[in-house]
Amino acid sequence: MPSPSAVSPRDVVLRPGRPPMLPTGLCGDPANWAARHRDALRAVVAEHGAVLVRGLGLADAAGAEAVFRSLTTGLMGEERESFAPRQNRAEGVYTSSAWPQNQPMCMHHELSYTLEFPGLMLFACLTAPAEGGATGVADGQAVLDALPRRLVKRFERQGWLLTRTYNDEIGASVAEAFGTEDRDAVERYCRANSIAFAWQPDGSLRTRQRRSAVVRHPATGRRCWFNQIAFLSEWTIEPEVREYLVDVYGAEGLPFNTFFGNGEPLGADVVQRLNAVYEARTAREPWQAGDLMLVDNIRTAHCRDPFEGPREVLVAMGDPVRLSACSPTIEVTAT
User: Fold this and answer.
1) How would you class 100 by CB atoms within 10 Å of its CB: exposed for 0-12, middle for 13-18, buried for 19 or more?
2) What homologous superfamily is domain 9-137+285-326 in, according to CATH?
């Protein structure tokens, strides 16, 4: 175990099927320790795409915020276009997205459908679940290399299309996703971010946006599979839940769905293939209370396993990156 006063990338423990881990054995202030070893931790993330720091002793939101801020160039402000509500626990620090604990949250790159997204994701485990609940990670370059070449080429040419329906009954509401209920403000945001929108007679909002599925990492130039095509697809929803949603809202009124960039439907086989490639390359480690995890959001996708018992993992998004800095393969458009 490395000394609490000295950390080197050489101290990282690498094990098959597990994320890179750095045990600390810390006795002292986690924020001071993180500030002293910021460069070493960032070097580990740059080399491996993620690192789980064990033994840091994070115990509350204020302590997590102090650690998060010491490790980033800045935390992003209030989230926009969220797919599920979060609760604010400190400035720039949130609870995990509200998602049924008995269902997996599939692999995704956070906010990969927006024009500005976090370059670094930060997670702090305050309460570990009794069973399950790991935050798995998967390398986006390895996933890209493993996908069928023809499928990748199509997504490179066409990008991917995300459709959403915002209402007050399921998923994030308009107010939660855009920070306001004012229609003029929502429309200004959509126009500024290349999002097509249409208000429905029942007051709900439907949107469409086309984004690049493959990008280049701005620091390394490596091509990465960077999107939420599988996670936000109707075929990733539990079948009985999907049937209920289609029955209540109609196929076009699902809270979210994804398509090929030209608008053609994605078959269930395509989504299953994407999720299978992710799963084969997923590294996971059960959370322990006090753990910290850093994830390069462009290079590395993350997920959340189903769990039992209480689970409190705080999240922050740092080092914002513009999509335009990542060599997108298509022009950003609303449709």
Assistant:
1) exposed
2) Clavaminate synthase-like (3.60.130.10)
